[in-house]
Amino acid sequence: MNFLEFMQQMVNGFSLGSMYALIAIGYTMVYGVLRLINFAHGDIMMVGAFLGYFGMAVLGLPFVAAVFLAVVGSSLLGMLTDKVAYKPLRDAPKISLLITAIGISFFLENIFNVLFGGTPRPFPVPEYMEHIINISGLIFSVASLMVPIVTLLLLTIILWVLYKTKYGMAIRALAFDVNTVNLMGIDANRIIMLVFGMGSGLAAVGGIFWAVNYPSVEPMMGVLIGLKAFAAAVVGGIGSVGGAVIGGFIIGFTEVVVVAFLPEYGGYKDAFAFVLLILVLLFKPTGILGINFDKSRF
Amino acid sequence: MRKLSILATSVALLVSVSVAKEIKVGAVMPMSGPLAAYGQTTYDGIVLAQKLQPTLKNGDTVKLVLVDNKGDKVETATSTTRLISSDKVTAILGALTSTNTAQVIAIADKKQIPVIAPAATNDKLTMRRSFANRVCFADSFQGKVVANYALKDLGLKTAVVIVDQAQVYSLGLSKAFKKAFEKGGGKVIKKLKITSGDKDFKAIVSQIKTMNPDFIFLPLYHPEASMIARQSKQIGLNKPMFSGDGVANQTFIDLGGKAVEGYMFTDFFDYSAPPTQKSKDFIAAYSKETGKNELNSFTALGADTYFLLVDAMNRCSDPSDSICVNKEIKASKGFEGVSGIINMDKTGNATRSAVIKVITNGKAIYKTTVNP
Lengths: 298, 372
Fold this sequence. Notes:
The complex is a heterodimer of chains A (298) and B (372).
Chain A: H1 3-34, H2 41-58, H3 63-86, H4 94-116, E1 121-122, E2 132-135, E3 138-141, H5 142-164, H6 166-176, H7 178-183, H8 188-213, E4 216-217, H9 221-236, H10 241-261, H11 269-283
Antiparallel strand pairs in A: 1-4, 2-3
Helix pairs in contact in A: 1-5, 1-8, 1-9, 1-10, 2-3, 2-4, 2-8, 2-9, 3-8, 5-6, 5-8, 6-8, 9-10, 9-11, 10-11
Chain B: H1 2-18, E1 22-29, H2 36-52, E2 61-68, H3 73-85, E3 91-94, H4 98-110, E4 115-117, E5 132-134, H5 139-153, E6 158-164, H6 168-183, E7 187-194, H7 202-211, E8 215-218, H8 222-234, E9 241-243, H9 250-256, E10 264-267, H10 277-290, H11 297-314, H12 322-330, E11 335-336, E12 341-344, E13 350-351, E14 354-360, E15 363-370
Parallel strand pairs in B: 1-2, 1-3, 3-4, 4-5, 6-7, 6-8, 8-9, 9-10
Antiparallel strand pairs in B: 10-14, 11-12, 12-13, 14-15
Helix pairs in contact in B: 2-11, 3-4, 5-6, 8-9, 11-12
């Protein structure tokens, strides 16, 4: 392997890693507050991608407007699922919530399958996103360059909301103790709903950028990505937004490195990524940036 | 007394012969779910064929019983059992993919009900199953067609193969291709493995670029193949690409966009080069029915499962005798089908021609026919 190919593979790893990171930050946000592994996250991502698809292919909206539509639509869907499925279970054991999340996940997959069929649809990628940049032999598309930028941007926004706004303070307080938050006169249910809205909005952005990079949308698209993003969030330390980004890069690079350096085992790249996950957790049970949840979060 | 009873039986026989029966034929197809698009196109062919030839030679009518397997293995098994035990079908047409068809065959074989598969190409499907039949070619033939065409007609000597290790279809086809390609003097530089569901292939295509093969063989289904084509073009890998029938559908072209221009694949049939008189008649009937001329190869294969079955039933004295029907299906020689001339053998496999198509200006254009 020559230097150019090595660098190209690193670029590939970077673009895949930032994709996982983008989806993982939504996962980790919801967990940080509710300690709920929202298994429906990948499917809300799928809904976001579908909304983007309808916005562009059916309504003929420009890309930015389609992203806006997807974010708003998915946020509303996230809040609705909270209201319908999670809120009645606030006092139930955590495991019931987890099962409900799996139920929501199956529900979304199947309802989209019934309504729109399982045949993948081509996502109408805007022309400028497909533009190829070639820097002395290193090749990447504008779309794959956009992903890390968007990830960093969203990361900054989330950290800003969490640490600089009143709502952020309420969210952080909620992560500590729900009862105390209620005693302080904050409507905990409203804050939880807000968290779901934000998390789902992030999922929608992730879904759209996934569809821009890999232009096909279908009802089952969120399953595998959701699982990988979940793994990324766990490796990074679930509940830590920065950790999710690091975790995403680790999983992305592992996959590319396995394919590039051990081509015979390329088909087992998922296995390698998950073995790494187990190793990290063996030595650092809370993940790389994970903190003991009894002390603090975010 | 004895005379009387003989008379009674012969009268009964006479009555039973003269009164036309209704013979039930089951169809197991993915009408919903991820494979719905293909299931529906294939079933369209079966339905139109039944409409064109609803009765047998002896006056019996054929009734189709459709069950939707939703593209799912377990669903396939339960619906097959239902068709045999409660609907009492004489034969089953379907299912679409090799994986699901294997389920149908496993159950029907025990109950001695003949199955005719429209498009399941996996080699192992008909092995040790005496009631399994198909009207499509098998992967070993398809692999040979690609290998010979690449070597002789295109002069391509080295290849990289991308195989989907989660699909029986892909594993079988890649093996058949490699065998035929190396026998003909070609060289497979490397076999790279992927898993269905993957979307990011940048690491793989970057590698192929440095290997610099003459062409890339992708025995995959359309979701993966289209993404690989797109990402190859992105990094400037412009080698010829070749696939089997797994990409023979419009969705592949929609997903691949400009990146699949020049992409070649094998298929069973092309409406622009109708191989038989029956194809011409069927295309005419199809365009009368739907207003379209573009008869999909799955529709043609669906129709052929029905026509082949009816043809076999006509040669049996009792068309509802599934053992005789099975025997006659396998005895069909030189059968003029919609998708071409089909010769069945005693293993239930069809010897038939393949066509090669090239994607040009967003359309799959007929290139040539390869005879066995």
